[in-house]
Amino acid sequence: MKAKSLPRLRRGRLDGADTASGLRFRRLVTDAAKSDDLSGPRAFTVWIDRGRRIFCGSIIRRETHMPRQATTSTPTDHSASGKAGAPKKLFKARAGEASSAAGSPQQFLAVDQIHQGDCTKLLREIQPDSIALSVWSPPYHVGKEYEKQYDFAGWQELLRETIRLHFQILKPGGFLAINIADILCFPDPAMPRIQLQNVDKHRSPITREMVLQAIEKHPAAGRRELAAILGCSEQTIDRRLNGNNIRGGKYNTQTRVFLVGGMIQDFGSAAGLFLYDRRAWVKDAAWANCQWHSSSYRSVDEFEYIYLFWKPGETIVDRTRLSRTEWPDWGSRGVWRFPSVRANDEHEAKFPIELPRRLIRMLTSQGETVLDCFMGSGTTAEAAIEQDRRFIGTELSPEYVELSKRRVSRAIENRRAQLFDAQE
Q1: Which uninterrupted H or E stretch holds 179?
Q2: How many C-beta atoms lie closer than 10 Å to residue 107's C-beta?
Q3: Most exposed of 13, 72, 143, 229 (fewest Cβ within 10 Å)?
Q4: Hey, how many other C-beta atoms are within 10 angstroms of the C-beta on 202?
Q5: Which residues are CB-contacts of 377 (< 8 A; sequence separation ≥ 6)?
Q6: Are residues 396 and 317 in the same domain?
Q7: Paired strand residues for 413
Q8: Phi and psi at residue 395, to the nearest 5°
Q9: Within this chain, do residues 179 and 305 fall inside the same structural domain, yes or no?
Q10: CATH number of the domain within which 226 lies
Q11: Which residues have C-beta within 8 Å of that of residue 152, sequence separation ≥ 6?
Q12: What tens digit of pLDDT does each residue of 143-165 get?
């Protein structure tokens, strides 16, 4: 959090609490003698989070005399002691609770639930410092039905605000993983409108050189006369000379590639998060959705990105989360290869469960909470249940909320069956 500029005060300190974030703070007044760019007494706001002093997102030193904040979160009990003694309610939902500065309990979003609503509002209701990993795939701004409510500026603001709200809810040392792709057909009004000369699709054998030769021989001839001389249409004459289609013209806004990585990095940095790593996911080539491959030199869409952001704090590196073969196969590799979802029947933009599964296994421990604020069909929740993690999901569409809830129910039953089978 940014420290606000404060008037000069006496040397000392003032303790308090911030009701919005639930964090305690200590305002220190000290002589900045060791800094060349500061002189005289200066006041700093130091946010104390889980026993650490944080200033401008950086850990300065541990406050050993400050007690750690109590938390009500408990790990999910996936253990079973046989069919007879197995828990009747696996993944029981519960709401987090903490005391505000006024002493009244504050309710947070229930864990192991899918919540319907705008994620930029619901993220404010998640318990601070409770999310070990947030993994999601937002709208890509490529014209899908569920994203038509956003223009480009609105889409940018959605991503910016969603990322900004993660600083408060991520655990110190936790991660935010964003799966997204570049926009391959980004409309740009500033791009020149020039008709492509795709010679493979010319219906007429007349070339530009032939038209120019006819003009040289008949300088007074107009477009109609040139068409009669060459035995073609006036449209062909105009296309060869000007790259235009006189039946409608090349009036559509031209498209180019828009790289999203720089934008996402800027949003993360502004939120106090640091770009920790990036992976490329090589998926099935989207031939049907990339019809431009036969009429231009552009490539087909066949890879996406996973950007990993880190919240400052202690991060535990546990190599036992993956097997010895998994680390060299994909854990330490920058390029992941697994197929796309072949049938987007219930949701038009599913991602494969292998994507959140890998991130959850690599970056979290059993019992920790995973968030997906664009839950869609419930893939991330299923992966979390499968790996004995808790989850929170938010989704704007009521239809997709019901879809993801059905998927979660099936995943819980499957996990129960696996646990029971392992006992036998």
Answers
A1: strand 170-180
A2: 11
A3: 143
A4: 13
A5: 346, 347, 350, 400, 403, 404, 407
A6: yes
A7: none
A8: -155, 135
A9: yes
A10: 1.10.10
A11: 141
A12: 667 677 789 999 999 999 999 99
- What are the angstrom distances between the C-alpha of 364 and each of 104, 133, 318? 32, 7, 9
Maximum pairwise Cα distance, the chain:
99
Q: Which long-range contacts (CB under 8 A, 24 or more apart) does 400-405 make?
A: 400/347, 400/375, 400/376, 401/114, 401/115, 401/116, 401/375, 403/346, 403/347, 403/377, 403/378, 404/114, 404/375, 404/376, 404/377, 404/378, 405/114, 405/378
Q: How many CA atoms lie within 13 A of 301 on its CB side?
A: 18
Q: Do 26 and 147 share a structural domain?
A: no
Q: Is the pLDDT of residue 36 over 90?
A: no
Task: Print the domain residue range for 39.
Answer: 12-62
pLDDT higher for 216 or 89? 216
Task: For 239-250, write each residue's pLDDT tens digit.
Answer: 788 765 544 445
User: Could you tell me which of 136, 50, 22, 90 has the C-alpha nearest to residue 392?
Assistant: 136
Give the β-pairing of 369-372 and 335-337: unpaired
CB 226 within 8 A of CB 211: yes
* pLDDT 10s digits, 339-380: 988 665 665 667 899 999 999 999 999 999 999 999 999 999
Q: Are residues 157 and 48 in the same domain?
A: no
Nearest to 213 by CA among 224, 200, 225, 226: 226
Q: Report the amino acid identity of residue 86.
A: A
**Which residue do the tokens 């504050």 mark?**
106
One domain for residues 274 and 391: yes
Rg (CA), the chain: 29
Which amino acid is residue 94, in one-letter code?
Answer: R
Asked whether residue 123 is domain-assigned, the answer is yes
| Tokens encoding 29 | 């007044």
Number of domains the chain is built from: 3
Report the C-alpha gap between 38 and 5 in whole angstroms: 13
Which amino acid type is present at position 285?
A: A
Q: CA-to-CA distance for 326 and 321, rounded, in angstroms?
A: 10
Q: How many CB atoms lie within 10 A of CB 194?
A: 11
Q: Are 94 and 120 in contact (CB under 8 A)?
A: no
Q: What is the pLDDT of residue 109?
A: 96
Same-domain status, 183 and 234: no
Using CB atoms within 10 Å of the CB of residue 57, give its burial: 0 to 12 exposed, 13 to 18 middle, 19+ buried: middle
